[in-house]
Amino acid sequence: MFQHYKNPMLLIEFDQNKSFTLEPFADLSGNMRSVNPNEAPSDLQSKIVLLTLAFPRLRIIWSSSPYQTAEIFENLKTQEPEPDPIAAVRAGLDKDMKAEDQAFNLEPQEMLGVVPGVTPQNLKNLILETENIRDVANMTIEELDPLIGKEAARRVHGFFNRNLIDLDL
């Protein structure tokens, strides 16, 4: 969100039929162990604290119900132009490509892009023909060959099937 929006916000909306609280509210004044990033946060409060520490520009909106959320958005929008849905969808997309040709989850693509044998040219075939990185990792050389070529298939397969501990030191 920070890459593509000027004012990123997180909405925490409660059910209108439930209490508007995060019980039990932990006392963080004496013991900061619950917000230690090296330990898994055990409660919602610590996760929110970690989130605000990691993203200090993030604004959090608290709402007691969907009705109040609508009121909050109405107040936030006062004196602002109507949002452009096309501009919102295009935020972060490559301006030179059609929206349907672009992927919205770039992390798996970036990960695949550094695998030996994967080039920008054959990456698109892998993206179009597989669901996720696990699919690529589990493919045989024969399955990869039509998508990226024999040599690239051999390198990709070798990468995903290499032993983590090399005993031939």
Automatic annotation (TrEMBL):
GO terms for cellular component: nucleotide-excision repair factor 1 complex. The keyword Nucleotide-binding does not apply. Pfam families: ERCC4 (PF02732). SUPFAM superfamilies: Restriction endonuclease-like, RuvA domain 2-like. The keyword Transferase does not apply. InterPro entries: ERCC4_domain, Restrct_endonuc-II-like, RuvA_2-like. Residues 3-76 form the ERCC4 domain. Keywords: DNA damage, DNA repair, DNA-binding, Endonuclease, Hydrolase, Nuclease. It comes from the Eukaryota. GO terms for molecular function: damaged DNA binding; single-stranded DNA binding; single-stranded DNA endodeoxyribonuclease activity. GO terms for biological process: double-strand break repair via homologous recombination; double-strand break repair via single-strand annealing, removal of nonhomologous ends; nucleotide-excision repair involved in interstrand cross-link repair; resolution of meiotic recombination intermediates. PANTHER family: DNA REPAIR ENDONUCLEASE XPF. This is ERCC4 domain-containing protein. It comes from Xylaria bambusicola.
